Amino acid sequence: MSTTAARKPSKAAPAADYLDQRTGIGKAVREFARKVFPDHWSFLLGEVALYSFIVLVLSGFFLTMFFVPSMGHVTYPEDALPEAMQNVGMSEAFASTLRISFEVRGGLLMRQIHHWAALLFVASIVAHMLRVFFTGAFRKPRELNWLIGFTLMILALLAGFSGYSLPDDVLSGNGLRIADGVARAIPIIGSYASLALFGGEFPGTDIVPRLFTIHILVVPGLIIALVTVHLILVVVHKHTQYPGPGKTEKNVVGYPVLPVYAAKAGGFFFIVFGFLALLGGLVSINPVWIHGPYDPSPVGAGAQPDWYMLFLEGALRLMPGFAEFTIFGYVLSLNVLIPGVVVPGILFTALALWPFLEAAATKDRGEHHVLDRPRNAPVRTGVGVAIVTAFMVLNVAGANDLIATHFELSLNGITWFLRIALFVAPVFAFWLTKRICLSLQRRDRELALHGHETGRIVRMPTGEFLEVHQPLTQEERWLLVHHEADRMLEIDPPEDENGVRRPGYGKDKQLQRLSRFLYEDRVEPVDPAELAAAHAEHGGHGNGTHGEVEEGGLHAAFDRPEQQDRAAIGAGRGTDGRNTTTSS
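^ Cytochrome bc1 complex cytochrome b subunit, sequence as received from the core. Prediction below:
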């Protein structure tokens, strides 16, 4: 006979009950704890961004206590490290950066962790958005969340640029000089914008304090607010999931938040933090003492910003310098305006509005919680690859001087090659990606109808040679069959039955053209009738709905392997006993 001791109440129970009675937080905690999240590695990209931001906040809090956001002029002491900066005139911002690096205990480690976390933060946001784009996770009801994620990416770029400019060294000063030039290139308001930003003529004395306020207060506050809204919407809309058996638009297959997912997420945070700590401790980044304080005169090769701003540098380098005109007394600097404002504006605007363009081209009003396979949306996938290709070309252009010096190539030759590639490479990438996606769709049809080729050829008693095909698993068949192909938009005729021109026909015609571009080239998925017909053609004896066949004990009736093969062909099975279809 066994006895069970009464469970003692937790010491935290009274405090939890006190808080629940006054805030009602218990209901929210219970609801959140029951939420189910799918278990797939690509969903961790958003978590990497969140954890990188947490590391940014923690390390930034440390750095804020020692950084002096002032452009006041000082002379670096004679007895301070590094020796190369002794008795050198510099701003207080640069001097405090040196003191953090060489005098504050753990200061250099924190600086480098902070910088690496910023790079990883932007990279994980971009990777997360690409995953959402290629899988169609932006569709209804998540259009608003897509815009929030897009805004977070812009804020991440702003946070990175403002933080990169704070040390007031040569590289960051050159970056601010470029930003001043881009601002001044904007017609009419450009010069006023520059004066307002820098508090006078460049560089002025106010830019570092203003960037400091933006970097530690404005941008982090907006990011925290938008991340909170983003996560709330994820819970409200429920999580998307990849297609598979048992996964529908009305359920989520995965693990609950408590205890499984919370434990995984907590462990993953420490993995990200440890990775950033290793980078900060072992890989040097942004050694400002090598470049020295900002001076507008020294500008040499190898002066590149961080990777997420390199596309803007590359666009400016590729643009010819002759496109400058004077109109009504205003100087229109197209050589700066086009690469600095127009090109990024077009790329970012197209990315932000894509969910709404797709919705308008299909007039789809249904909710989508099961993700697309990128191959099943060939134009969307091609456009995404084209945009990534354009950014890659611009990033390479931002390092054209390094390529020229390291590989002893002509700088002008590299620049002209990249100018041509900026127009040719994205188009070629779109075409190639689209053709690959359509080819993969055709391959999926063949697999769904005939199964996997085994390379085993057998001879029937009639003298006919057939190949044994291995059937698909339930999960494979689900991926290949259970999706709907988007079709071109059908519109009403331009005139009604009375010959009166229908209002709104012009808009519908434009949407139909967009729909034709998106969905004209497609491969229809296999339907149950086709599966049944293919199965009957191959001599199957199953139900015909999904190409399945009934198992039998036919292997036991034969002794020799070749007889087993023939029996398997006749019964629609492979020699290993699994269901197959056959193809002549």
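The chain is about 60% helix and 5% strand.
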